[in-house]
Amino acid sequence: MGSTSGLALRRISGHCTVTAEKIHAWYLLDPQGWSFRPDPVREQLIIDGADAYAQLVKRSLHLRVTTRPYPVSTWAAAHDANAPAPLPAWRDYLMRDQHHLAGRSMADKEVYVGVEIPARKGLYKALGGLAGSLSDREVAALSARIRETDEIMSAPGMDGSPATPRQLEWLLHRSCSLGLPAPLTIGAVDDPHWESEDLGEFTDHVRWTAIPYGRTIRVVGENDTQRIERHVCILSVGRMTDLEIPSGVPWMQRTDQLGFPVEWSGRVEIEDSARVGAAMRRSIQKIRAQKDHYELEHAEPAPGALDRQADKALAVEDEISMGLSGLSTRTRGWFRLAVSAPTEEEALERASAVRKLFAPQITIARPADQYAVAREFIPGERLGSTAYRRRMPVTTLAAAVPAATAKVGDRVGIHLGETSGTSSRVVTWEPWEMTERGEESGLAVLCAGLGGGKSTAGGNIIYRSLLQGVPWTVLDPSGRLTALCRLAELADHARAVDLLDAPAGVLCTYRVIAEPRREHYASELDWRTAQDNAADTRRLLTSSVLRSMLPRQMQDHVLTEVALMRAVGRVRATNTASTMEVVEELAVLDGDPELRRHSGYMADFLREAAKTSHGRLIFPAGYHHDYAHDEPLLTVYSLRGLALPDENTPYSDDLDERLSMCVLYLAAWLTQRGMYFGDVHARKGIFIDEAWALSTFSTGRRFIDRASRDSRKHNTRVLLASQNPSDLLDLGLANLISAAFIGRLTDEGAQQDALRFLPGVREGVGYEAIFGTLSRPSREGRRGAREFVFSDGIGGIERIRMDMSAHPDLLEALSTTADPEKARNRLGRHRTDSLPEAPAAPADDLGEESA
Fold it and tell me: Basic and acidic residues: which segments have biased composition (predicted)?
């Protein structure tokens, strides 16, 4: 180590590091998605990576995987700036989330690859460490080779870009301060050139201490205010079995599943095929000589291991000699892992967790000289130990896919939870990203079976965005989400409405279609066109609802549609009209005697239906309700006690069930009106549970078309929830949504249908079974936090676990699981058991009683 900093590194010039012996060009690899990608796509990613490695033959590589923390305070500041009109409880909510996320990982994985630039001139090699200008001139002289390397590293499979000086500075900080918390800030001077005298910035405040043959090294860092100490344990990849390619999880990505950071360092040499072939032929000759020694000289059978070794060597030699592409290239490498903790015992426990993670396919060993192998993590340092050398083809090296990571969500939106698949990291999501910047629809689906957590997931999204000041209109037939209205922080801004007890006409077919507002349209022509479309929708909706009320024989009669079209056409399709006007038109319909008689029967039946409790909500005019009060921030419509037919039954013979379906369907249209009120640019939200009811009406697709088209124009996130994905597919939603949450599904058909909501994921490759593994019960029978496969609409698809533990009041309000300890009879028993015992009678009284 000739430099004053104690490092072999002499100089940094651009994205190149210079030592007395070598120049390495450094590249930062782009993150690669892995989860829910088809096997052919994964295989192509590995083949592309292997091809890039093969083009670097006779060169050495230094592979470094580290992390860059994303401060929770940065997310909180961005999240606060993203809130349009926060409620008074916003500050407390944000503080609770900050404290909660402080113990979670919001770090970004960064993968750096240093590639040796060959053909150094002897004079520059001798003087490179003495004169910085000579090093810079040599780097400039090698510009053609560096550009060639840049092209190789930017190719598919690598997707690397030259590391910036700031990124190299970060890598050196993380390597020299191995195991210490990452600095939140780095040097103030942004200079692409570092002299050897400047490199002390990385080492002066860090001290490494090692006991000979100790189990860890001690790294101590100091700054102006504090002293931090960590124990670092270095592990090495040992023997490996033949790995499946592509595997479920790339072998270098496995450590992302652990709850603590793991650093990787890989020193790799891309070997010359001719040299490897010659070595294999020598090995074959040695094996044959050993077999002859057993069989000819001693007349004993040779061990079977010799035959296996010979077959392996022959296969490698044949692959190298006959291979028509670079995929037959071989490599040798040393792969180290570093785990750290405040105490040595905890560091060794983490090392044990790493061993268990890789067993039994890969052996993880702890090298004896911890200090020497720890220095390998620092760019420019020599190999500390040749032990645990691994030989492998470039395909196995590329199958490590170190840049694979969980890519889902953003760094601005509401906190949903954390990934629970191939890695564990915090997931935040901005629901209005797609309507505001992506120019796509605001439709999203939420599918899960019974107990899958639909209401909880929807309530979590609604609650967090409500505190930002975003208005929501919710249709929850079961009434569970009305609990949000009773939360202290929302009580003054929310209203729960039981539609079954609402005033007459609240679900009038003409009222539930909002009247277009002039200020929402750029021109008079656009506004008039929207008014005509609204009138057409009212006519179709009225005809569809009235027809669905009729008995089966009337619905199927050839004159029913004719009568409805004529009667509906005679009523002016404005929001002030009433459904009863159509019934009156049916009663006086002109035409041939058979049509008059049939329309009269229809009018008589519908008059009787209008007298029912459900009918009074639909038939009278209801426009006057729109002027009764101001809309609160949260409106929750419930339909408790509504008798719905079975989802799989297309028709019910019971009038009450048919009317119930009409009520549910019209309630969905009423809820959709929420997007048309207020500022067209302001964020709004709509949540509709039991969305399967939309597919039972002929105008259900029209509902979806309006929602997909107008949600983008009116900046509205529309969440549609259902137990069966097929119901939503029947509405043509697969190509219209911009986000999806798919929870636990056990039916094979439902699992196949759910895949259609995940872009790029094909059927028949094994992903269907994942839905059955979500939210698995514990040994106690509890499922805990619910899991979903989340598609964020911008290409990210990951398995996530909803997390509301920072807000216990919200979690309790949204919980639909029965708690026997809260039953009234049990509470009464507890009160009885807790009553004090009657005091014992005095002795004199006892004596008198006995006398």
Answer: 819-834
For residue 233, being part of any structural domain is answered with: yes
Residue count of the chain, please give it.
Answer: 851
Distance of CA 836 to the CA centre of its chain: 55
Distance CA 484, CA 470 (A): 14
Which two tokens mark 357? Answer: 């993670």
Residue 846: what pLDDT? 36
H/E segment holding residue 143: helix 143-154
| 558-570 and 579-587 helices, crossing angle to 10° | 120
> 3-state SS string over 161-192?
EECCHHHHHHHHHHHHCCCCCCCCCCCCCCCC
- Burial of 394 (C-beta count, 10 Å sphere; 0-12/13-18/19+): buried
Within a domain: residue 788?
Answer: no
Q: Distance (Å, rounded) from C-alpha 210 to C-alpha 232?
A: 10
Q: Is 660 helix (H, G, I), strand (E, B) or coil?
A: helix
Q: What is the CA angle 178-180-185, rounded to 5?
A: 105
- What whole-number distance in Å separates Cα of residue 692 and Cα of residue 674? 20
Instruction: State pLDDT tens for residues 640-664.
Output: 878 777 666 666 788 888 898 899 8
What pLDDT is recorded for position 849? 37
**Structural domain of 191:** 9-69+107-271+329-401
Tokens of 383: 């190999």
Exposed, middle or buried: residue 137 (CB in 10 Å: 0-12, 13-18, 19+)? middle
Residue 151 CA to residue 842 CA, distance in Å, equals: 101
pTM of the model: 0.80
Separation between Cα atoms, residue 284 and residue 55, nearest integer Å:
28
C-alpha separations of 110 from 37, 67, 725, 828 in Å: 21, 5, 37, 59
C-alpha span between 64 and 66 (Å, rounded): 6
Pairing of strands 227-240, 16-19: unpaired
**DSSP three-state, residue 497:** strand
Whose structure tokens read 């004993």? 300
Name residue, tokens 């009269």: 600
530: in domain: no
For residue 544 the two structure tokens come to 């569809």
Q: Is residue 222 part of a domain?
A: yes
- Span 89-109, pLDDT tens digits: 999 999 999 999 887 767 788
Residue range 522-581, pLDDT digits in tens: 889 989 998 999 999 999 999 999 999 999 899 999 999 999 999 999 999 999 999 999
| Model confidence band, residue 65 (pLDDT cutoffs 50, 70, 90) | very high
How far apart, in whole angstroms, are the C-alpha atoms of residue 149 and residue 116?
9
Residue 605 in tokens: 């039946």
The predicted pLDDT at position 127 comes to: 45
Quick: pLDDT tens for 672-731.
Answer: 888 887 788 899 999 988 887 777 776 777 788 888 888 888 899 999 998 889 888 888
DSSP SS3 for 734: coil
- Burial letters 705-737, b for 16+ CB under 10 A, else e: ebbbebbbbbbbbbbbbbbbbbbbbbbebbebb
Q: How far apart are CA 442 and CA 447, in angstroms?
A: 16
Percent of the chain as helix, strand, coil, to the nearest 5: 45, 20, 40
Q: Which residue shows structure tokens 């760019």? A: 379
Domain total for the chain?
1
Alpha-carbon span 332 to 57, nearest angstrom: 12
Please give the pLDDT value at position 840: 52
Residue 809 has a CB neighbour count (10 Å cut-off) of: 13
> What token pair was written down for 123?
């004079």
Angular region, 401: left φ>0, alpha ψ -120 to 50, beta rest: left
| Nearest by Cα to 208 from 181, 230, 186 | 230
Count the Cβ atoms, other than its own, within 10 Å of residue 209: 11
The string of DSSP codes covering 322-353 is H-SSGGG-EEEEEEEEEEEESSHHHHHHHHHH
β-strand 472-475 against 716-722: which pairing, if any?
unpaired
